[in-house]
Specification:
By secondary structure, the protein is an alpha+beta fold. The chain contains twelve helices and 20 strands. Strands 2-1-5-4-3-6-7 form a seven-stranded antiparallel beta sheet, sandwiched between helices. Strands 14-15-20-17-18 form a five-stranded antiparallel beta sheet, covered by helices on one side. 55% of the residues are buried.
């Protein structure tokens, strides 16, 4: 019974699970082959309980970490016969229709942890792989119309059995990748991470005993639920709805119902699934809603586990953009995922403008480009998210040059690394001067990045949202700017895009990335004069904006 266990020991075990996930993260980061993993940290690690509920999460992308429990549950469901899962096994999964949750580039590795011939936990990680086949380099094309065009689908397979690699599976993976050496390097980094985590959990169980370990994990889930229920009781009860036009002209809608013991997100009244890759799986939609739920209820509490989200319920309609039917493409799922989180936050912010900030750039701004390195002759591929501006809030200005909250705890690739590893020159990296986001508390600044191509025959793929419909303001603030790309051709021509698929670039062409400035909170005419003067001095606003929007006159 619960009272028979020492509460101090229980808490030590619970915190140890966090430490295990963090050590897994460090192991993966230090051994990965691709800069998207070891520099950008486009990855996540975690520990689940024996039934697949999240028990401990590491650093990395929040919207990645909350994928792992859903993938482990699918593996448990699929491999349900005696002997299907054994000590030393490692499983691989990426198919969003079979537990992969996101898109085919995101590979999940999971390993059962045995103690006394019984599974007591699972260790798992997820990372973006540079290429998994498909119709274009990088595997993500805005022109894809079905998932078959987006690369190889791994519906949960055993990669390692009893500690021994299954060579045929490795051969299938490398045969379907344009950059097999990077694939193998990143794969073994993920294997090392789950093995490190499993070894540490076995040590914890050995030290404290299996009964108290299992109890500690269950108690941690119950604690997560209590934190969420306490937070819900402090929120106003009510029903709020919002409909918002998207860049493609469609309207996304949500209704949020908050009571003392339940948080319901209703997304059923939304468009049918997209004919292209702008879809999010039902599980991915659930992850996006979890992000919004956590931000609204207990953003200051870093802990989140399976119990945290027990009070949340998400309603979707099968065949819609938020719950698509097979074989819908999902390569650009991440933009739809962010749209879901942003939609829920925008809806609730109507009722709680003092609790939530105005809209930010709210896009991964995923940028993929590559070609042949002019110095080494080897293929290279850049796959990076971009930083932008967050919205202002009741307490302060928005953060500048940050990743979207869904994509937090990652880094931009340093210019020195990009120039060494890729066939480009980074000519400009800084905040842009587009006038937008004014407010009592202004929006954070977006950035401009210029990449000059150094060899002919390069390619570019990108898909940005918030390119036509800007970030939304609150309490009289002004809207933010837009996310977009400007191609500056070597002959002087300029082309503007928000979506592009496998475009050819040649020597001396420039990719100019422009991410949005966040929206403002409050009337800009009420901003303190000293702050406006400081913004002008530091280049955050222009002289015209200081005069016309903030009323600063000499």
């Amino acid at each position: 019974m619960s009272h028979a266990f020492d509460p101090i020991t229980v808490e030590i075990i619970q915190n140890s699970l966090q430490a295990v996930a963090d050590e897994m993260f460090a192991a993966m980061r230090r051994t990965a082959m691709s800069a998207i993993i070891y520099e950008v940290l486009d990855m996540g690690t975690g520990v689940t309980d024996r039934s697949g509920e999240m028990a401990g999460s590491g650093s990395g992308i929040p919207a990645f970490v909350n994928v792992l429990d859903k993938s482990v549950k699918q593996l448990i469901h699929k491999f349900d016969q005696p002997g299907d899962i054994g000590p030393g096994d490692v499983f691989l999964i990426n198919d969003p229709y079979h537990g992969g949750v996101t898109h085919l580039n995101d590979m999940i590795l999971a390993m059962p942890v045995f103690a006394e011939d019984e599974i007591v936990a699972w260790t798992a990680n997820i990372a973006h792989w540079n290429d998994v086949g498909g119709m274009v380099p990088g595997s993500m094309s805005p022109k894809a119309t079905e998932i078959f065009q987006e690369g190889m689908r791994i519906p949960g397979v055993k990669l390692i059995a009893g500690g021994q690699p299954i060579r045929s599976v490795f051969d299938i993976l490398t045969a379907n990748c344009r950059m097999p050496d990077f694939l193998i390097g990143d794969l073994w980094a993920g294997i090392a991470a789950v093995r490190v985590g499993a070894r540490r959990i076995v040590e914890i169980v050995g030290k404290y005993g299996k009964p108290i370990f299992l109890h500690a994990v269950d108690a941690y889930m119950d604690f997560g639920e209590r934190v969420s229920l306490k937070a819900l009781s402090a929120l106003p009860n009510g029903v709020w709805s919002l409909s918002e036009e998207q860049d493609n002209g469609q309207v996304y809608s949500v209704t949020v119902t908050i009571s003392d013991d339940e948080f319901i997100i209703d997304l059923r009244d939304n468009p049918d699934q997209d004919p292209g890759p702008y879809n999010a799986s039902r599980d991915r939609t659930l992850c996006a809603c979890q992000m919004a739920f956590k931000a609204i209820t207990s953003p200051g509490d870093r802990r989140a586990n399976g119990g945290t989200f027990r009070p949340m319920r998400v309603l979707t309609r099968e065949g819609s953009v938020f719950d698509p039917a097979f074989p819908a493409a999902m390569g650009i799922y991440y933009e739809i995922s962010i749209r879901i989180t942003d939609l829920v936050l925008h809806c609730v912010a109507q009722a709680m403008p003092d609790r939530l900030p105005a809209g930010g750039f709210a896009s991964v701004c995923g940028t993929l480009f590559g070609g042949i390195h002019p110095d080494t002759g080897r293929p290279y591929a850049v796959i990076e998210p971009e930083v932008g501006g967050w919205g202002g809030s009741a307490r302060k200005d928005g953060n500048s040059g940050q990743f979207s909250p869904n994509h937090g705890e990652t880094y931009n690739c340093p210019a020195e690394v990009a120039e060494a590893r890729y066939g480009v020159t980074v000519e400009y990296l800084g905040f842009h001067d587009e006038e937008s986001g004014a407010g009592l508390h202004r929006g954070g600044k977006g950035v401009r990045i210029d990449y000059r191509i150094r060899a002919d025959g390069a390619w570019l793929t990108a898909a940005y949202t918030r390119s036509k419909v800007p970030p939304w303001p609150l309490e009289g603030g002004q809207a933010g700017s837009s996310n977009h790309i400007v191609i500056r051709r070597a002959d002087g021509r300029r082309e503007r895009y928000s979506v592009v698929s496998n475009m050819t670039l040649n020597k001396r062409d420039v990719i100019q990335i422009m991410t949005a400035t966040g929206a403002g909170w409050g009337d800009p005419m009420q901003r303190e004069r000293a702050l406006v003067e400081d913004d002008l001095k530091n280049g955050y606003i222009t002289a015209a904006q200081a005069r016309d929007v903030y009323g600063l006159h000499e």
